[in-house]
Design brief:
- With 228 residues, the protein is α+β, with helices and mostly antiparallel strands.
- The protein has two domains: 159 residues, Beta-Lactamase; 46 residues, no CATH class.
- 48% of the residues lie in helices and 14% in strands.
- The radius of gyration is 21 Å and the shape is elongated.
- The N and C termini lie far apart (50 Å).
Length: 228
């Protein structure tokens, strides 16, 4: 069977890419090589994180640059999954810069699973749209591998912090490792009147208040590169 450069790469090498951002960039480059009129793309994955519902990577063909847009979940993961699809960062970005020229594919059977979106300088022809759909089908297996890695990384980062998670993933921890010295600014935040709040309100109200407080404090810290 004669496969395109894109499909051959998805079968043979895509699962070995360093992360979803690199997969998106390399997939876009292969699609361009195969003659598809791609101007940009977006890849979205769900992650099990108390602050982040989804991670979306945005790729521009002109520069080859990939940036990340985090989808924060003020109401938690369950609320984020029930939200309108128009809240998805990747879809907003695609629609915002190329209204009407967007092609998007869901990867896998789940509605909240990975998705790939592409923009072009013109409307994609039926043949081009079919090639993009075929690429999305072949991308399911390597994306499943990368999603599993992303899930592990997200869990470690949520409970260990970004730096410690990277060390755990890079090599086994040993007792003889001395560690490292870093400079850091520490923020300790407490909720004034929490004892009175918890004693005078039902648990659901207390948890809602804690969630709102956590979103504002921890969300801002995380958005600017800090760790919680």
């Amino acid at each position: 069977m004669q496969l395109s450069s894109t499909l051959s790469w998805l079968i043979d090498a895509a699962a070995e890419t360093a992360g979803p951002d690199r997969l998106l960039a390399e997939l876009g480059a292969h699609l361009l090589e195969d003659g598809l009129p791609i101007a940009g793309g977006a890849l979205t994955l769900d992650v099990p994180h108390p602050l982040i519902a989804r991670r979306t990577w945005l790729w521009l063909a002109e520069s080859g640059a990939v940036i990340e847009a985090l989808g924060f979940a003020p109401g938690g993961l369950a609320a984020a999954r029930e939200a309108s699809p128009s809240n998805d960062a990747g879809r907003r970005w695609l629609a915002g810069i190329a209204a009407g020229l967007v092609h998007e594919d869901a990867i896998g059977p789940k509605r909240d699973g990975p998705s790939l979106g592409w923009i072009g300088p013109r409307q994609f022809t039926p043949r081009e749209a079919e090639e993009l759909r075929q690429a999305a089908r072949f991308a399911a297996a390597p994306l499943a591998v990368l999603a599993a890695r992303a899930t592990l990384r997200a869990a470690l980062e949520a409970y260990l912090g970004r730096r410690s998670a990277a060390r755990v993933l890079a090599a086994p921890l040993r007792r003889d490792i001395i560690g490292e010295t870093i400079q850091a600014a520490l923020l300790y935040a407490d909720l004034r009147g929490f004892t009175a709040l918890s004693e005078s309100n039902p648990p659901a109200v207390v948890i809602a208040a804690l969630d709102a407080w956590f979103d504002r404090i921890a969300g801002a810290v995380h958005a600017f590169g800090g760790e919680v």
